[in-house]
Write a structure and sequence with these properties.
Four copies of one chain form a homotetramer. Chain A is of the alpha+beta class and 180 residues long. In chain A, 19% of the residues lie in helices and 41% in strands. Chain C binds two DNA strands through strand 2, strand 4 and strand 5. Chains A, B, C, D: Keywords: DNA damage, DNA recombination, DNA repair, DNA replication, DNA-binding.
Amino acid sequence: MASRGINKVILVGNLGNDPEIRYTANGGAIANLSIATSEQWKDRNSGEMREKTEWHRVVIFGKLAEIAGEYLRKGSQVYLEGKLQTRKWQDQQGQDKYTTEVIVDINGVMQMLGGGAGGRSGGDNYQQQSSQQNYGQQQNYGQQGQQNQGGFNQNQGGGQQSAPQQDSGFSDNFDDDIPF
Amino acid sequence: MASRGINKVILVGNLGNDPEIRYTANGGAIANLSIATSEQWKDRNSGEMREKTEWHRVVIFGKLAEIAGEYLRKGSQVYLEGKLQTRKWQDQQGQDKYTTEVIVDINGVMQMLGGGAGGRSGGDNYQQQSSQQNYGQQQNYGQQGQQNQGGFNQNQGGGQQSAPQQDSGFSDNFDDDIPF
Amino acid sequence: MASRGINKVILVGNLGNDPEIRYTANGGAIANLSIATSEQWKDRNSGEMREKTEWHRVVIFGKLAEIAGEYLRKGSQVYLEGKLQTRKWQDQQGQDKYTTEVIVDINGVMQMLGGGAGGRSGGDNYQQQSSQQNYGQQQNYGQQGQQNQGGFNQNQGGGQQSAPQQDSGFSDNFDDDIPF
Amino acid sequence: MASRGINKVILVGNLGNDPEIRYTANGGAIANLSIATSEQWKDRNSGEMREKTEWHRVVIFGKLAEIAGEYLRKGSQVYLEGKLQTRKWQDQQGQDKYTTEVIVDINGVMQMLGGGAGGRSGGDNYQQQSSQQNYGQQQNYGQQGQQNQGGFNQNQGGGQQSAPQQDSGFSDNFDDDIPF
DNA sequence: TTTT
DNA sequence: TTTT
């Protein structure tokens, strides 16, 4: 997982809608969130307060996606840490379009924050651990040996299926299942 | 304000106590916060969940300190962005002691988050300096106008006194007023 | 400048091209950068190393834009801190297009890093506004004149005492004082 | 690895000395770094430039520690991402002492940056992956005991399939594959 | 103790 | 289009 560069996004905002959850052929969860952050300032001419809201498209993978689907609702406040990714696609007219999203994958962080409309108050922070490229490796986490058994798979869900499934999902069916 | 290096801390946590507010001779506010962040994990041997709480000493200056004093309470959840700073001091026995704090000054960010015990739900994000007054400008950039006159002082409080006061406080009475 | 939410991007990457600099009618500088970050990983099936590069559109305002134009070149490595912003525009066919950019404005941070193709090694970190030590400078913000018209130029380089003083230091003596 | 709160430190700075590397009984590497970040500003009274350097104690675990030991030198510039941790200890007089460190563990990030005195220019970013299961371990680092004795070696280099495989890739072919 |  |  060596990389040249840092590509990090940190958002604290509220969901504009309930999360949209879908699954890859391999059972990996993917959650799409629309997150609002807003800024207010006093207009220098009118002296009135103005506000601008920025909407962020967030795509969450794996266990975090499941948690998002279960606990986040329209209005929920959430902390998210991910990376920027731009994907190209064609609309119905065959026109090239580009969409930039915040990807919260196995390296990302999600923390539910209190006070959202639909959210549970308080909230836990989940970190998927390990990195996107390591999927294959995570697969075996806790499978043998003593150490850390119960490590990843427990965090990630049931019977060490979760991460692996997801991984397969990503590598095998990525093109078909995920629209970016 | 050129600098070599980046020194940034980002915390999301809860106050262990009400903020302690004090003022410099020049009226600048200083807030001391004790912030808890905690981590949970499953012990690999026992399989039990374990938890560790880390306590952070946070020192906030200026307008943000005033806001902290007014709106944050024991239990409040808050987002903070500041920098690390270690100061040396002597205890009563003349022993050297070092304390590392997270400094949230004019470059820092504070955002109250919903759901804290004492906190107001929801919460606004305050950034001490500059900034958002200029957002309108960015949109208009190049359009001019007299915009943002009164910029900083408006952000910082009344009659452009705030930041200046604070500034004086820091430069003139720093040694006397602030114990680090 | 209260806001609900945090919208923060941190990038460390290399410029794909020389910065493109332009100026507003009021003399405010704007720099457009194309920044690459890349990830490498070992493919779990083939065992081969794979790499994916992400390109980021970065727009820098004000004094930082001037510094970028002067010191950054194709290949330079840079640390950037800004916010996400998506703008809508129409192409020649009148089709709606959306572009997401990383905005490095008066709240942003830029630090040149050593080792880039075109960059000088070493490098200083510039933060557009103030910092704790700059209190005195901020002091005068908005106090007189048409300051800050034209977006950033006044905050950052105009005739004021405050930030400008500091800025003058940078803009006037940059070549002499700063070794990169 | 659920947690309440975010505890994140981001540093870009230079090493004041060569890294100090040690190993746990289980072969896990631990690197201690002393990292400088500095700020400059123009004194508002004297008009002179002033500078303040902050020194950060950084403790790196696991594979990243090995890489630090191999590639970082006094003067090297590095990007680090970790968490704050304060530990209590007694000096020879039995006095309680507290030391706050930046912990770069399996959730941390390290990226070597170009231009350092001892560093090779360029540099790759390493992310250890995986997570908080290791927190308990960090407490024991170097002391051994049973838990995570060896710190990360199990996660990162022991007999497991998962992460270790990946790690092997890096440790075995590092010199050949990675050009820094 | 670094770096500029 | 960068970098390694």
